[in-house]
Amino acid sequence: MRLYGPEIACRTHLTEHERDVAEAYQRGMGDGHRCGWENGQELGKQQVERLQRRIRELEGLLGRGTLRHETGGEQVVEVDG
Q1: For residue 1, is it within any domain?
Q2: What is the pLDDT of residue 53?
Q3: Whose CB has fewer CB within 10 Å in the chain, the N or C terminal residue?
Q4: Where in the sequence is the domain holding 64, given as residue range(s)?
């Protein structure tokens, strides 16, 4: 028995058991999709937070550094050394 495809659209010819199985399958697919989407959103949020922390760390290091000279419009900074 297939639980996906065009035959699901016509529930008239399904037995009650087949209908229940098809609905459970579709519900499971929907739940799985939603769970995957939510996990992806959370992972993206964590990556953004990690990168923001790293930017703050690097800005702090740059702020503690000593400006040595400018080269071609770029500032060269020595940090911890």
Answers
A1: no
A2: 96
A3: C
A4: 6-78
